[in-house]
Amino acid sequence: MHIMACLKPVPEPDTVKVDLETHTLKRESAKLILNPADRFALEAAVRLKENTQGKVTAVMMGPPNAAPLLKEAFACGADEVFLLSDRAFAGADTLATSYVLAKAAERLGPFDLIVCGKVSLDGETAQVGPELAAWLGWPSVIWVKEITYKDGQLVLTRLTDEGEEVVSLTLPGVITIEPESNEPRPPSLKRLLSWAEKEVPTLTAEDLAAEPERLGLSGSPTRVLDVFTPTYEGKKEYLSGPPEEVVEQLVKILKERGLI
Amino acid sequence: MSYQGVAIFAEWTGKALHPVSLELLSEARRLAEELKTKVLAFFISSPEGKEAAQALIKHGADEVVWAFHDKFSSFLDDLFTRILVKMVEAERPEILLFPATARGQALAPRVAGFLRLGLTAHCVAFEIDPEERRLIQIRPSFGENIMAKIISLTKPQMATVRPGVFPRAKAEPARHGEVKPFPLEEEELKSAITVMARKERPRPKIDLSQAKILVAGGRGLGSKEFFEKLFELADLLGAAVGATRPVCHLGWVSEEHMIGVSGQTVSPRLYLGFGISGAIHHLVGLRHPGLIVAVNTDPEAPLMKRAEIAVEGDVRQILPLLIQRIKALKGVENAS
Amino acid sequence: MIDYFFTPAQKLIVEIADRIGQEYIAPYARKWDEDEVCDPRPLWALAKADLFGLFIPEEYGGLGFGTFENCLAIETLSKYCAGVATTFAASGLGAYPILIAGSKEQKQKYLPRIASGEKLCAFALTEPQAGSDAAAIKTTARKEGDYYVLNGIKQWITNGGVADIYTVIAVTDPKKGARGASAFIVEKGDPGFVIGKKEKKMGLRASTTTELFFSNCRIPKERLLGREGMGFIIAMKTLDLSRPGVGAQAIGLAQGALQVALNHARSRVQFGQPVYNFQAVSHTFAEMAMRLEAARALVYSAARFIDSGAKNISGASAMAKAYATDVAMWVTERAVQMMGGFGYMRDFPVEKMMRDAKCLQIYEGTNEIQRNIIARELPKFVKPLELG
Q: How does residue B144 score in pLDDT terms, banded at 50, 70 and 90?
């Protein structure tokens, strides 16, 4: 089975700085990490490949400095990795992002299955997987926590609001993987050493034969009008000092208010 | 031809109307009144959904576009998308809202993708720009303490709506409207997905929304094991345990405990947050909380600023001490 | 404070071991200690990262690095849990006899599975009556046609039960004493080989220690390592190679204790200021850091000395083991003291580190035995110096 795993670089939360003037994220200051949910997707893809003697192609749309994350994906079991990187991709919303991924699937495939993480840490829309399926005209199943493969059919356990469902999916298709549904492996030292100093192959808009008006900001129908910081009122009590005393004061306040 | 009306996706659980549909209806009603237009409900269900279709009218829909078939007792992502895309093309609503439920999140991006439309996820509020008839979609953004106002340049303007944010519409028995059966052709009813088995969650989902006291933890607790101390404290206080998104993703606690975007909305009398920085994703889950107490080493953390009682200190020291102190207090009560 | 000039590959080893420590060990270490369980998950992660193959030659599926790189991995893991590091290092210990004395066939059969982490290894020398006096072992191996038949008891065997492959020292010729010992490979499931009870330990509780029973345990004669009579030499050489690893465990453990305690001392406020501001505290930390760095330098030097191909490594290896583990005991005890009541509580990690450290002074040859070795080796290296 040939599987494409879609990965996303996200800024590490602790390193993100916000521009206080514009209230936008200073992305360049942030350290990039692999989106945590995508590690489970990659692991699911690699396990499925191991059980079916298949191949995993990992792709990531991102700036050039995201390339080391793909090296890590290789070390975690992807057979080949590609960075989808082009200035024209900048400013993409989920529709323009999923378009680029769909073009990559056409260029690098044919694939039997595309695996995405459930949701990204920064955007948190959970839209790219199903939108990618729509671009390709494929079915999609989201929030998958178990996967088995039998006779060309994928049998999936997906989470629903009411509980779980076991569904079969005729391929090709797109699935998104529930975080914590498997234990992602650490990178293999052997694979990292074998990669050595090789460059991560990069595909541009031209390589993908992408239509320019579908890319980046011009391919994105949503616009951020404004960002604002919600304000909350409330009068304030500030406790600091030795923990024992702080706890004592806190318990006293909570008792006074009849909360404990 | 212009776009008219505010449409919602009315969700069928396989047995009944999902109550979130009524939350969408109340907001759709409000938006439609501002735009002086009608409310549509797109409803896909098994034939038993007939009464539910009427209920949608009573709760605020002017028209229910109803596709029904025995097959629709199962949720089939590709088939439902195909029908919805046709409904949108036939009815041309200017706004289309989905609940951010499992089904809503599976469907909305598929529909947006097929129609090449913009889509905003997990909205918590809407505003209308009456001149442009534009829907301003408000959602938490970028993991920091920021809300974003987003618009869509395409129509219908699509958004998913966080459950628990809008009030449920009340039934008005006198309301009238039209339930329009949606024509289906047999060859459209194919799906690559077959539901083979269904298992309802064995125990009731942890319902944080009813908790009077909430003890919540974030990454500042440092480890899964230390996070478990929250359960000890919760037991002592008769509280429920909540968590931030990163903590759930780290696997310290199941996602059923998540508060905020893609988690639950809570309104406890007392909220104790330990090691929580207070990203907006989490804060939006606090609706009308009573007293907020934050414990954090960083006085600049957003939750510390939001809290009525901000406790500066190391949670790893304070939490065990607090447990001890409350145990002692309980001991006294039990003894007396 | 000192840069040891690691190669890029060595940096990568530390980075990966550290990641395994953070993700697969740190969140659970205290629970494993409390429950006394050898959890397979960190071992799975170590296997996936190829760390079990660090010092196994590439032709046998390993990475072909040396003692030093193995020490770096052990040190890093020990910062998070010396118990997990023990399971890891003991598998390497069990593999050394095969590496030292195994035939090509034996190496081909066993080493690739050890390198991949598919099979864990254990080394079985100690017996109820033969601890420090290792030459007093009583377990016998009698040759019967194409088989050896083993009888006896091994005691305090790390990885007993969790390992699949055991390298066992047994007496083939009781008349010859130490020169009558031989080394064998015994596999889990061999007839007459039974795992005994799991010991209840003070520390290193995430690792498993058991007895091993051999009652007419029949193994094919191809399981003999080297020749009959080489057993004791193989065992001593094995320990010479592995002891810097115990030293590495010690410095990792001490490093962890230093980090936890220093963080505490800098944030714990008493008398209106962080306790680190008091000289009695800060000087203690200075002393901890100094001794730890000296131990690290010694362990690294000994490991690099071994990797240089040096022949007479017993003294260097013993020094690294004894000195570093004594330092770890002292540093972890001070770490508990510097944290006061917090240090003594099981909610905080340093009391475990102190319990773990104690074992390092005892196993793989007590530190008293190490001093015997150093003293025995000393005249070979220290020439008389005559000053006018």
A: very low
Closest residue on chain B to A35 (Cα): B249
Tokens of residue A69, six digits: 């994350």
Tokens of B329: 């207090």
Residues in A closer than 8 angstroms to C50, CB to CB, are 188-190
The distance of A67 to chain B (nearest Cα, Å) reads 22
By C-alpha distance, the chain B residue nearest A138 is: B78
Q: Cα separation of B60 and B73, whole Å?
A: 24
As a whole number, the mean pLDDT across chain B is: 90
Return the H-helix or E-strand segment holding A4: strand A2-7
**CA dihedral (A96, A101, A104, A105) positive or negative:** negative
Query: Helix-strand-coil percent breakdown of chain C, rounded to 5?
Result: 60, 15, 25
φ/ψ of A125, rounded to 5, equals -100, -30
Residues of B in contact with C347 (CB under 8 A): 226, 320
Of C3, C135, C113, the residue nearest C62 (C-alpha): C113
Q: Distance (Å, rounded) from C-alpha A231 to C-alpha C374?
A: 70
Query: Up-side HSE of residue B85: CA atoms within 13 Å toward CB?
Result: 19
- Distance spanning both ends of chain C, measured CA to CA: 40
The DSSP line for C176-229 is GGGGGEEEEEEETT-TTEEEEEEP--SS-TTS-EEEEEEEEEEEEGGGEESSTT
Q: Does A244 touch chain B (CB under 8 A)?
A: yes
User: How many residues comprise chain A?
Assistant: 260
Query: What average pLDDT does this structure show over B257-264?
Result: 82
What's the order of all strands across the beta sheet hosting B39-45?
Answer: B119-123, B157-161, B95-99, B6-10, B39-45, B63-68, B178-181
Whether the link from the prior residue into A172 is cis, omega within 30° of 0, is yes
The stretches of A166-216 forming alpha helices (DSSP H) are 189-195
What confidence tier does A157 reach under pLDDT thresholds 50, 70, 90? Answer: very high
- DSSP bridge pairs for B9: B42
- Cα–Cα distance between C203 and C352 in angstroms, integer? 7
Nearest to A54 by CA among A192, A171, A210, A203: A171
Using the structure block, give the residue that is written with the tokens 């699509």. B158
- Helices and strands (H and E) in chain C: how many: 12, 10
B312 touches chain C (CB under 8 A): no
Q: Which residue has the tokens 């039974």?
A: C194
Interval A55-89: pLDDT, tens: 999 999 999 999 999 999 999 999 999 999 999 99
Low-confidence ranges of chain C (pLDDT < 50): none
Closest CA to C89 of C63, C54, C48: C54
DSSP-assigned states of every residue in C94-150: HHHHHHHH--HHHHHHHHHHHHTTSS-EEEE--BTTBSS-GGG---EEEEETTEEEE
Q: In the predicted model, what is the mean pLDDT of residues B195-204? A: 77
d(CA A108, CA A139): 19
A102 φ/ψ sector (left φ>0, alpha ψ -120 to 50, else beta):
alpha
Token reading at A54: 């298949």
Nearest to B320 among C26, C268, C347 (CB): C347
- Of C27, C342, C345, Cβ closest to residue B225: C27
pLDDT tens per residue across span B211-255: 888 999 999 898 888 899 999 999 888 889 999 988 888 888 888
Nearest C-alpha in A relative to B99: A161
Query: Of C304 and B148, which is predicted with more confidence?
Result: C304
Say if CB A61 and CB A96 are below 8 A apart.
no
pLDDT for res B210: 76
Instruction: Tell me how far CA of residue C341 lies from CA of B317, C81, C335, C345, C355, in angstroms.
Output: 11, 22, 11, 6, 16
Cα of C134 to nearest chain A Cα, Å? 37
